[in-house]
Design goal:
2 strands; two-stranded antiparallel ribbon; single chain
Amino acid sequence: MVNLYLRKTLIYTVRLTQRKTKLSLLFFGLILLISLKGYSVSSDDDIENRSDNFCISNSSVEKHSNNDRSKVIYHQNKVPEKGIIDSTYIFRELAFSYANANEPELACEFIEKYIESTLDVTFVGHSYFDQINTSKAHISLANKYLKQFGWCAIFCFYVAFVGFFLSMVLNLRKRSDRVANMLMSSFVLLHSFFMIHVAIHFMNYKYYLPHTLYLSTTFSYLYGPLIFFYFKRVTERYKFKLIDLLHLLPTILLVILLLPIYLMSREEKLRMVIHHEVPYITLISISKLISLLVYGVLVVGLYVKSLKSKLYVTKIFKNWQRNIVFFCSAYALSYAVFAILNISNIRSGFLFNFQVASIAIMVLYVSYSAFVQPSLFGNLRKVTSPPVVKNKIVNNKYEKSGLTQSLSLELKSKLLLLLNEKKIYKQNDLTLQKVSELLDTTRHNTSQVINEHFDLNFFELINKYRIEEAKVLLKKGERNKGFNIIDVAYEVGFNNKVTFNKSFKKYNKITPSEYLKLFAA
């Protein structure tokens, strides 16, 4: 009986030993498999002390041919104590090893994986990749992540600077329609912000300044209302009403929608940029396109209405309105293409740059017009028809003149602007040639316009304006006392008192002294 029990015990012990042997062999087999596949196992502390646990050298890289593809196998000097696989470390070491093995495509693949994992875009410029930095793959990756400063960025910053400067100048102009200028300056200012955002994109600074995410998106629904109300102002002298604030409702809703994104941390925004995560991009792009199209139709309607109106508008101002309508239409159409590219995450190429170019040209055109033709941003006046001088006698010497009626009316309007607002008659050295240069026409045309529309010659017209201005100054001077007549003469443009007295008496039948006595009495 005892022998039987001993025999069973011995058999059970042998079987248990065999099972343990099999488990041990399986365990060592798994370790060997992990080692052959090149996985590195490490804890966070082991990663920070990589020099103690791992060593990558030229001798640790072996190439094996398999279907004409190179494989790199890692050999680790030590097995980590903790069993946590760190993919970030693997990506980095694979990138280093493939670069060392002169495999730029594979190296760049793991460089990008490392960037997506750690958000460290400067990893592309690591000195370990110097030997592959001339390869197409690495150049493409460097252009994508590293800071760039090319002509496109310089041009965008230039346009933005011009736009900012123009916005400031328009709002500081005196004797102008401040409401219309405020609307146009705001329109240009928002596009200047957009150009800065594009410049940041071209320079790859979106990775270094992630808080610029959605920098110009906030204003997406303001472009249409601004240009619409500008046209209403300059064509109808429109005055704002409280209900017009409803046009700001889409912008307010957009700000509320994007507020959680604006409040994100730098790291969260950077992760969105690197992983091309652009929330609401489809919604914003489509709704902005609809906004531009709706307001574009309204602007075209106002323009057509102004053409049919009986209100007199100079040819220069008509051309200005026509060109603005054209640029706005081109902008809306180009944005339709831009929206499709944006939704598809395509932010380069000709079609993308076409949208940027259309905005740049529009900003530069408005700026050019503001400085070359400042009257476009002057006071707005309603005139039902061009003023006509009664009993106008057309001199026979102008019968063969090449001056058309439309150009003649346009030159007259410009001349009245120079006289009434610029008060050029106060210049004591004013000549017909200078006035012609200001009107951008010939002396002959200027003389013809003065003769036909004012029934005066050049000096008679200038002296008439000078005398009217002198009468105003004499009235003010009499009320303030201690005023000198000769000072008035110089102020209004006369060079001496004799000529002033002679001209004053010609138009008023009395001398300046007698004119003052009338108010003194």
